[in-house]
Prior knowledge:
Blueprint: H1 2-16, H2 29-35, E1 37-45, E2 55-56, E3 60-61, E4 69-73, E5 78-83, E6 91-99, E7 104-109, E8 123-128, E9 134-143, E10 146-156
Amino acid sequence: MKKVILVCTLAILMFACKSNSATSTKTDRKSQVAIKGNWEISSVTYPGSQYVKVNTFQLADSECFVGSTWKFVSNNNKGTMALTKTNCVAFSSPITWFVNADGQFVLKILDAGEKARKVRDGYVLGLANQSETSFQLIDKIDVAGKMTDVVYQFQKVN
């Protein structure tokens, strides 16, 4: 009897201590609906940008994302993004995304025809200063052992 109680107690402790993943929490529908539509990144800012280059989403230098176009569809959490800046690599891709209940923006960049569930890598960014015409995504990067915010400023495109 004591063994059964011990096993039950251990099982309860294991499940009670389970951590929540950014991708397994409920979504923030209100924030998602507000992001629906066509957007453009108007600026990318971070301390030391004149000295440090950031390789955003392992695709290109962060400056190449200025002027990039993004389309967010809130009812199916899909969309597209495209880098179009001259003197930068041209890139276009479908994406999946959602805003979790903790206010984090979860993003996966897909290859053409690829299913989101097959993509293991993604990005969790902070969502800030959301309005009808703008919002910010904030990525945290390590610069010489110090965590630094990279702020992507989005503007609504009509």
